[in-house]
Amino acid sequence: MNLPEARKSGFQILRSYSDTPALDTRIILGWITGLSQGEILTSEASLTPAQVMRFMNALQKRCNGRSVAYIIGKKEFYGHDFAVGPGVLVPRPDTEILVEAALEFLRGIDCPSVLDICTGSGCIGISLKSALASEGKSCALTLSDISPQALRFARRNCRQIIGNDAKCVKSDLFGAFEGCRFNLITANPPYIDPREKSMLAPEVLCEPPLALFAGDFGMEVLARIAGDGPGLLENGGLLLVECGCTQASDVKSLMEKAGLGRCFVLEDLGGRPRCVGGYRDA
Predict the structure, then answer these.
(1) CATH class for the region spanning 3-64
(2) Which has the least CB within 10 A, 58, 144, 222, 265?
(3) Is the pLDDT of residue 282 over 80?
(4) Are the C-beta atoms of 171 and 144 separated by less than 8 Å?
């Protein structure tokens, strides 16, 4: 089997199971062969028997509902490949808008302290620290999650991307940080209403429920963060969280009720309300 034949075969097999069968096929082939996406599209090289077997096994996993990120063990986010797998949420492109907003804020502070809770793979906090480092700036970064599995991935990504230059702490939201203060707190918490489970794609349902679903119509964890987060901010500090597109106004109201000022909502790549932020003004 050569690469053109593999691309055609993968598309035919996956088109009933994926909205992006051609892309999924190319990513899997790139993982197996080590070739770039451009090379996958133009090369007519033949796959070895071992590569064909890996390719077919990967296609079968995809047909069974496993995400491509879980199959190849990584997901690109903000210019870096983050290690992912069962037990950790797969980073989404929409979350990059939170990173952009956080970076704009952090650039105005010398060596800020950053806490990223519900960190999962660590993609938000690690991206922030890496981007600041590329500009010759630093920050004191803490990554936190209640899941030991997620923290293992966060620690691995810390080693691979920022040279272990962060603290990784097991905590139920702010439980481990009493008395601490941070310039920035970020979070991509669970915010899906469990009643919406039947509406989710199979690959999403392979991800940990702890990272996806929250009680009170998806608002339970968001409400705790909005209520308790302000007390851990330095004066002038920013709380910035991702939420569902129907939850943004409620989260903004909760932040304002908790005493944050200049609260704002950011839209995602599809123009939907996706992130909410607020400042602790002195």
Answers:
(1) mainly alpha
(2) 265
(3) no
(4) yes
